[in-house]
Amino acid sequence: MCGRYTQTQGGRKLQEHFNAAVQEVLPRFNVAPTQNALVIHTESPRTIAEMRWGFVPSWSSDSRSAQLLINAKSETIAEKRTFKGSFQSNRCLIVADSFYEWRRQGSSKQPVRFMLKTEEPFAFAGIWREVEAEKAFVIVTTEPNNLVRPVHDRMPVILPKEKYSEWLNNDAPPNQLLDCLRTFPAELMTSYDVDPVVGSPKVDSPQCIALYQPVQGSLF
After folding, report:
1. Is the pTM of this model over 0.85?
2. 92 an active-site residue?
3. What is the rounded distance in angstroms from the CA atom of residue 45 to the CA atom of residue 79?
């Protein structure tokens, strides 16, 4: 599962990387479900816009108390009723530059930040839909690579830059789209432990991405 990520790049960098227009961009150090985040979608592939993270399940009678769907598995996205329609016609690039997962350490969990070695921005594969004039997205996940696997059994699909236009192409056949949803190579990524403060969605500051070095207890 991918439940937190970052987008700390400036507007000019995003324009250059995605070849898309963007308004004022504020750095995000702890993007969480229900919050708005930057995406590029099939209806406007040359504009970086905002959408809300998370689908309200179609079977829920109360959207306020519903458990949001925030991820879609690549293995079932083309068949599962909840996601099939969006996969067919409403795909998006989710603008990011790292994501967090939590490594279990005894009775506690240590957050870990995963990013590209180049520290460049990238895009998660996403799908979106519109309900009552509000657009919302979910992140597509897949099997983890060797860097992520010791921490979690899933990871978000990071699309290679050359796959961006293909993922947004509504004329692409399903098999071609599914082929985009591959595990990103571990050798192109790096990771490090970060401050547990990232566990709170209320905290969205550079402290979230700071290298975490636990205080050692005194011997005396």
Report:
1. yes
2. no
3. 25
